[in-house]
């Protein structure tokens, strides 16, 4: 099952790490640490092999992929030996990267993306191409009447307006090209009624939003712990310090707001009430691709006794995100092959703000994910209702 | 369903907090924070009401219960207003406390405990009495041939030897008196072949060992998180600082060893491998009834990138343990009423070192616990095989 | 040497703790922990005894002092036994508290304050009254031509404008009444050219600004450590969570900005460069009178090796500030008695933003403070140039 | 002033980093971050230039210096570019390294070391050679009558006994060869009456013990902070996790005990009382050359209010120690050139367990160090009494 992985934001840290890692796995130069689809509970015949993944993508930046990989090696994100060993393979992927599309209208630019996707699929004789958005976080877009339904959207895109935010323009093109779509960021992507309707019409599955890689991952096991023990969480305050490209983007208050909202949702939905405190994101360039998050949780136990917990998470977002990008490409490809359509709510395990997921608890999400893959491997489709 | 709760170590911090809390709940003076049996997923008709719990117990100490409660109020563990409001009720429980049993042989002392338990049950017309061990941690006992089976045990106890450690002598007496038994400590308790066989013969359920209240509770959600994400935990080092009675006991290297072993088990069994590092327990008198644990976890992600997490837990063990003691008394009473016999493996949620539990993951333990209580409330007994 | 301590903001947490503590020291009910003037290097005959301090003050709030003390006891800031033992003494201080002054113009209101101060001094036959501002932090004031010199100020105050921020109106009145003045807050207080000139004319000493009690105290020893070791501090990020009255005030962005600026100054001035990162203050009501600060410092050592340090400070601001208020009242009274005039730069030890202090290093500030008190005790006045 | 730096333990991490760093400074390839002798308050004409330092040493290990440097580059301690650029220079130093001395008696082995030192000095036409012990920590030695005075020592060394621990045998040889001596470790080194007397006779200065590079460095500013604020430190507990060669050595309980004692001294001597709690050292191989220390400090403020501070230090010991080794070589060489004799107590700034230092406060040590260097640069010798 030859599967294309088309990365929107293909020269970014997450994409570059995904590509280097995917190539290293194919070449047997690295293990699958961090790839959940290689765990005994998940792996199986329905998933494309790492060796069957072919990479391509778009990016507005033009830095050669090899340079980006070298910079990540310098920053301690990936080992130098892999960059050295994979120069030829990276050069081959370089040939599959395309600049941002041009055109007078958004319709024109979407058509250009469709052409790129279709040509990629045909050139490599791929069974399918999964489009994954790993580009920088966008601010929340202005509402537009064209977001409401496919007809309105189609009409609006032909005009001069910037109807769709960029993430959604790529999602739109993916659907037109018949590609399943994954949104790894908090951007709008496919989350507009018009796009969801188009995906249903095209019988495509999709997944999102916002990869759960650090502080929120920890929250998604600690919040259920407090809830299961009936402890009264009085306040939960988080402070995220991050450098790198994403940090600079999030220093923009609008993007920051989108991200913070996504991060706090887990608490209210898991605890059933919203504790005091909030989450802050600050840009500290010097931290580079690493991120430090500190959280303070104050809680009351039996008879009101006050207690507290704090944690510091010091993680490398690219190293945490990249294997999940490969996992999501494999799982979404398998779902497409199985004829599943619409939001893949069973992939909530991967996301801060999971579409249609009934829970933010990592343990419950895991149970749903293992059920889902078991059905994929055995040819059933479980209780996923939207089979094509 | 009038239920006795007989506390071994009845004047200790955990027992005193349990008693004050139980009385406060009965009087409507406090809420049920920390009691998991009051969560929507667990509560129901099979459990005795808080108002139906009657307290008694043994202790070698003689400090009046009221004085112990005042000391805990001074230490910030329970509110002064509850101690003031519950003086009469605490005085009534004082009448139900008994000193350590006397007698020439362990058989004599066990018989004295049986008399205390039987008299308590009859005096208060109780449907049953659950015996809960909340006394200080013992060192691991010397092996003795009498531990092997009921006949050998009975013969040995009539002689002059100290055949059983104290925790096990109480467990033995509980079984003789027909009382379900819970071990909230890492001591031996009912964990001897002879005692397990006697409990089966007497058609009694039992539960244990070692209440999961702090650092290990956190480990039991974080370790599964690392496992579910296929992250490679390289080291996990823990440092526990505790004052109070338990701290002083654990400063004894033998008791410390028992506790530490119990605390590390969760890692090996959840991750499938044992990371570097260990757990240390230190006594710092000044911390009183509060405990501070610091853990450092180093782990590798995709392509070997090194990352780290640390957490500090600052908890009050008595305030965390006491509501679980009430929960366990209610659940074990309900299990006894339902005719269940033998180890209640579905109560693994409560313990660091759960008897017969197939998992140390809090999420999985929670799923088993909610199944179990659902069956209790609906009159079924689930897949618990040992029904009497 | 009978000394009045007149607290602006006399019913606040810091003032109430100062009063309870001062009364407790006088009554021999508490030790002098936290009072630096009782250390062997500082104590001596020039300082008024605790027993010679008489308390009074202004406040816009009207909650009785006893109620405030009880609330602080409930919050764990002061012991209940002191509140119980000092009810009569607190009642006596209650008689010395005055509401905010009224009057048509700021000149009228200043005159009312002068009358309150003068009457207090005469009523208790005090040698002098030290006015200490411990009221809530103000936003930075609008510039006004009246701030420039005494004549312009006097003219402006007679008009309808709010010429001075409230903290400065009290400072102005203190000077008019011949009282030395201490500003324990980051508010403007005496920091206006017109007021400084008036204090010189009145031959009065004064001290400030902004008591150094928590995160900044720690910074003022850690930053010199990095500097003395020639380590390259790359980033220093701080996150302050605080409840209580001060927290709510600081949630106001304008007041927050004043405070944050004061907190960061120590880094630039000690290191000689400003590292990346900033300081955040967040209000978390649930933390009450306690404050938690977390700081992350990343630094490079020899050959560029990256390292990091983090600390968490969990302090009670009132308990840290109150003894310093007593220290400052004693030291400023002694300086006045010794005829010193103008800014007491040798008291930089106590402040985040010390007037005229050449250093933010706690160690260097300590050396200057011990020199200063040695001179006071031996009757010399050191190199303090402005002797009257 | 051509100065030899003879490293005992010359192939260890600290020595290798010192050599690479010294060569990089000479070649202008690195800055002097971490070198305190390059701070404006300390630098001056009395110190030998980095370019005048010539490296040699002993080691029982035989791994080539270049291999050791590569391993440190792999571990993130030194940059790869320096190892690549300095291959020739490292090869030259390799020629100056000698294996452990052989000989039938300790006297023979000392004589062999003296020959190595003398030959090194003559071969490179050095003004002097400073011997610096950076070898692994030894257990405390057995007492021996030969330790008492030079005559007894000389007699004993000619016999078959292991009279001196290895660190002291090198110190003895250094003195015989007329070399000033620095002990950067907690081992015995020159700390024996016989050796101190010999150093006086030989008119040599010496310094030690145990470089202050991490947790103790932080303690030496935080403990004075608590003392200067008259806060009551109730407990101070430390937990050190370290990998690398030193970690493995310290896992040996005897060496551990020596180190821990050295680390706790600062508290008792600075605070005037010993708080509860202790320091633990644990070996966690995975941490490599990095070390993580966590300290919890509980303290009481005014009226007994309980508060707490915790810090985590994540440092690279070699990167912290190496520049101090260069500093100490320069300072001790300058002291020797100035004719100073005996313990250089003014170098207490550098050590956990400073010989003859009246204080453990970093700030006070800094004041003494800057005085000392000012005198060296201006040709005076301050209050250092033992001038030759």
TrEMBL record, chains A, B, C, D:
Domain Myo-inositol-1-phosphate synthase GAPDH-like stretches: 214-318
InterPro entries: Myo-inos-1-P_Synthase (IPR002587), Myo-inos-1-P_Synthase_GAPDH (IPR013021), NAD(P)-bd_dom_sf (IPR036291)
A single MF term (Gene Ontology): inositol-3-phosphate synthase activity
GO BP, sorted A to Z: inositol biosynthetic process; phospholipid biosynthetic process
Record Pfam families: Inos-1-P_synth (PF01658), NAD_binding_5 (PF07994)
Gene3D superfamilies hit by this protein: Dihydrodipicolinate Reductase, domain 2, NAD(P)-binding Rossmann-like Domain
Family according to the record: Belongs to the myo-inositol 1-phosphate synthase family.
Protein name: Myo-inositol-1-phosphate synthase
Phylogenetic lineage: Bacteria, Bacillati, Actinomycetota, Actinomycetes, Micromonosporales
């Amino acid at each position: 099952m030859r599967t294309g992985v088309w990365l929107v934001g293909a020269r970014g840290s997450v994409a570059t790490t995904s590509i280097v890692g995917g190539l290293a796995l194919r070449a047997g130069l690295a293990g699958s640490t961090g790839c959940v689809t290689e765990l005994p509970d998940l792996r199986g015949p329905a998933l494309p092999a790492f060796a069957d993944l072919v990479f391509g993508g778009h990016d507005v930046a033009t830095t050669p992929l090899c340079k980006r990989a070298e910079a990540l090696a310098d920053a301690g994100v990936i080992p130098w030996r892999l960059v050295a060993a994979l120069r030829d393979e990276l050069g081959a992927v370089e040939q599959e990267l395309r600049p941002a599309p041009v055109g007078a209208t958004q319709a024109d630019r979407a058509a250009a993306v469709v052409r790129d996707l279709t040509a990629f699929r045909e050139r490599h004789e791929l069974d399918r191409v999964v489009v994954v958005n790993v580009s920088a976080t966008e601010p929340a877009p202005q509402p537009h009447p064209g977001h409401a339904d496919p007809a309105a959207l189609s009409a609006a895109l032909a005009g001069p307006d910037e109807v769709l935010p960029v993430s959604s323009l790529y999602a739109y093109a993916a659907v037109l090209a018949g590609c399943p779509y994954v949104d790894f960021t908090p951007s709008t992507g496919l989350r507009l009624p018009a796009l969801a309707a188009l995906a249903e019409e095209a019988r495509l599955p999709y997944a999102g939003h916002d990869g759960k890689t650090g502080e929120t991952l920890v929250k998604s096991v600690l919040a259920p712990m407090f809830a299961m023990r009936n402890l009264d969480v009085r306040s939960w305050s988080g402070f995220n310090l991050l450098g790198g490209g994403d940090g600079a983007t999030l220093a923009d208050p609008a993007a920051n707001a989108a991200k913070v909202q996504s991060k706090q949702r887990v608490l209210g939905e898991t605890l059933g009430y919203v504790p005091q405190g909030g989450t802050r994101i600050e840009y500290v360039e010097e931290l580079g691709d690493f991120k430090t998050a500190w959280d303070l949780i104050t809680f009351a136990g039996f008879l009101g006794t006050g207690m507290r917990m704090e944690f510091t998470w010091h993680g490398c977002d690219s190293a945490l995100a990249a294997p999940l990008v490969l996992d999501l490409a494999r799982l979404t490809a398998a779902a497409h092959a199985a004829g599943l359509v619409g939001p893949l709510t069973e992939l909530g395990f991967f996301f801060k703000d999971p579409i249609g997921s009934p829970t933010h608890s990592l343990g419950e999400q895991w149970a749903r994910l293992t059920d889902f893959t078991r059905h994929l491997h055995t040819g059933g489709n479980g209780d996923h209702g939207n089979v094509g």
